[in-house]
Design brief:
It is built from five helices and seven strands. The protein has 150 residues and is an alpha+beta fold. The protein has one domain: Trna Endonuclease, Chain: A, domain 1 (3-Layer(aba) Sandwich). The strands form two sheets. The chain has a five-stranded mixed sheet. A hairpin with a 3-residue loop joins strand 5 and strand 6. The longest helix is centred in the N-terminal third of the chain and has 19 residues. The radius of gyration is 15 Å and the shape is globular. Its EC number is 3.1.21.10. It catalyses: Endonucleolytic cleavage at a junction such as a reciprocal single-stranded crossover between two homologous DNA duplexes (Holliday junction).
Length: 150
C-alpha cells in the first residue's frame, strides 16, 4: 500500500471511530478507493436515529486547496440522493482536526470540484454535522461519553 493510500485509510478509520463514539452506526465502504465503475460508494456512511451522512474523506498535511474529480463527486452525490442522506467532504488536518464541507445533493457537477483553503478553514467540525442532522445531546450525556473514552 502506498504512503498516500495508507494515510487516506488511516483518516477513514479515524473518522469511523469518531462517529462510532458519537453513537452512529458507521462503516467504511470496503470498495472505498477501489476502481469500481458500476456502483457509487462513498468512503464512509454513518446513520444515527434514521439520519444518514455520507463522507468522502481527504487527509492533508497542511491547509491547502482540495480538488475532487468529477466522477468521485458525482458518486458521493448519487449515493447521498439514494440514501436520503447529507453528503460531506471530510478533511483531516494535523493540529486542526476534522473539518466538514457540506455539499448540496442537487449540485450539478460539470468539472473537478475545488474546495479552497478558506472554505476548509471556516468549515465546521463534527458539531456542524450533528447540527445538520438535527442531533443534539445534553451536556451531561456528552460529558459521560467523553469521560468513557479516556
Amino acid at each position: 500500500m502506498s504512503r498516500k493510500r495508507a494515510k487516506g485509510y488511516r483518516a477513514e478509520r479515524e473518522l469511523v471511530e469518531l462517529l462510532w463514539r458519537l453513537g452512529f452506526a458507521v462503516m467504511r465502504a470496503p470498495a472505498s478507493g477501489a476502481k469500481i465503475k458500476k456502483a457509487d460508494y462513498p468512503d464512509v456512511v454513518a446513520i444515527l436515529k434514521g439520519k444518514v451522512a455520507v463522507f468522502e474523506v481527504k487527509s492533508r498535511a497542511k491547509l491547502e486547496n482540495i480538488y475532487i474529480g468529477k466522477e468521485q463527486t458525482q458518486k458521493l452525490l448519487n449515493f447521498a440522493r439514494r440514501a436520503g442522506g447529507i453528503p460531506y467532504i471530510a478533511v483531516r488536518l494535523p493540529h486542526i482536526g476534522w473539518k466538514f464541507i457540506k455539499l448540496d445533493v442537487n449540485t450539478e457537477v460539470n468539472n473537478t470540484l475545488k474546495i479552497d483553503k478558506e472554505t476548509i478553514e471556516k468549515a465546521p467540525n463534527i458539531a456542524g454535522v450533528l447540527a445538520d442532522l438535527n442531533i443534539t445531546k445534553t451536556l451531561d450525556t456528552y460529558l459521560k461519553q467523553q469521560l468513557n473514552t479516556y
